[in-house]
Amino acid sequence: MLTEVAGEIVLPKLMAGMIDEGILGGRGMGFIIRQAVIMLVCIIIQVSGGIGGHYFSVKAAVNFSSDVRKAVFNKVQEFSFKNIDKFSTGSLVTRLTNDITQIMNITRMALIMAVRSPGMLIGGIIMAFSMNAHLASVMLIMIPLLGITIFSLMKTALPRFDSMQRKLDNLNSRTEENITNVRVIKSFVRDKFEITRFNRSSAELRDATYSAMKIVVCAIPVMTLAMNITTLIVLWLGGNIVIAGDMQVGALSAIVQYTTQILSSLMMVSMMIINSTRALASIRRISEVLETEIDLTDENAEDKDKVVTEGRIEFRNVSFKYYDNHEDYVLSDISFTAESGQTLGIIGVTGSGKSSLVQLIPRLYDVSEGEVLVDGVNVKNYSLYNLREGVGMVLQKNVLFSGSIEENLRWGDENASDEEIREASRAAQADSFVTGFTDGYAMELGQGGINVSGGQKQRLCIARALLKKPKILILDDSTSAVDTATEAQIRCAFSTTLKNTTKIIIAQRISSVIGADKIIVLNDGRIVGEGTHDELIKTNSEYQDIYYSQLDREKEVSLYASSYRTSRERPGCIRCKKGQADGYEKGGISSAFIYRRG
Hints:
Blueprint: H1 2-23, H2 29-78, H3 81-84, H4 89-131, H5 133-180, H6 182-187, H7 191-244, H8 249-290, E1 313-320, E2 331-338, E3 343-348, H9 354-358, E4 369-374, E5 377-378, H10 384-389, E6 391-394, E7 403-404, H11 405-409, H12 418-427, H13 431-434, E8 444-445, H14 454-467, E9 472-476, H15 484-497, E10 502-507, H16 510-513, E11 518-523, E12 526-531, H17 533-539, H18 541-566, H19 578-587, H20 591-597
Parallel strand pairs: 3-10, 3-11, 6-9, 9-10
Antiparallel strand pairs: 1-2, 1-4, 4-5, 7-8, 11-12
Helix pairs in contact: 1-2, 1-4, 1-8, 2-4, 4-5, 4-8, 5-7, 5-8, 7-8, 12-14, 17-18
């Protein structure tokens, strides 16, 4: 870039010498040719430097943006659930794509302009003053005026670009949510509603973009006007000086070129500053991710080399809330013990804190008060890797990734043999339907496992967790889409394949936990019952309510299903009184469900 700048500065001087000495001075064609050859050599060097400068600036900008993207992605991988809650998925996608692209563009531009524009500005001013200080002083008047204009435009543009990026976040979030849940949208015939919402978000982004780009649109004419006015003033004043005989035509021509260079460099700087306004908004958003303080780390772990060997779990007076500024706790004063190899059932009404409780074991969240111990050691004293390696977890929301079934199962153990994969699948009652597919374990799954049923997805996720051979296995309502017979077979397999593994089963159905060594009943974030099924059915009113409500509903469903099968009055419906139908709705069973079971 320095060679390009040097060429830009030297060429007008050589041209002035060719005009004043070669043409007007009468030094002849030989002098003119020599000047032309020198100018040609300068141009070749200048072009070579320019090509090299642009090549390396692009290479540096692309590699820099790639490094930033890796850093942001790696940072997101370190996030705890609490950190992730601060950013929407669409916002993180925008930051990893659009924002980093903006940073790449401004980096490339800056690497070129940072040398070229200041070099041309300073070199042009020096050369212009050396030729005629009176004319050069005109430019010193215009430079501050342009600086004030640029600052005003930049101050106005920054909040507008911030707004534009937020609107882009919103549009990406809307798009991601819509595409992910397209089956729900179609099943509820909400296509037009979603199109309206998308159009509204798109229109908001369009308006925000118009508002921001108006600044850029205004900047170019202002800069061009200033450059043309300055050139006219220089020509008018310089022409009078030439007529008076105090300066030659070639020198005036050179000063005009230096004026153009100076103002062009100012224009380039102006455009870079205005574009950097948008990049500054992106830089700030990237910095928010990179500077996010990770609230779950193992930096203070006292025994980072320790691994989970037994799977014994103990909660000591644990209380938990998702946000420090919240008054209410999700869990309050939780204390219990699960011995190695035991099966612990956790049951309770929706919102009682069951999922929150088990997420404290692998430190997906940290306790607010009290402590959680695994093998007698506070989970905070394990390294996150060693702790989570010892825990297998099947979350409420079953997630599979695009790729083959085998690739998804190997998340549990990437070095597992084919027989180990089959064995884990058989234990999870998944092998029978997988082998029924044309491609078997090589069958490609769509994003999120959209081409398998809910029950199949749950069984594959269980198989993936079993393949990990964890010392602690957590099943968070992970058999809700599986029929009771298949669920019983899965539990039976657990008793053999996971004999020494501590198993925690969260369920809505009593039948899922009835055979557990210990059952914990949660209500409103507190333990209201603890014991075996036989103990709780005798002593705990909350457990009794859950048990008998489920038992009664099963009997009623069976009764009405039987009635439907023998009825010939109105095929396709169940005759019942309005009050009975309302009772089913309140009890959690709809007449549509009775119809399906019937």
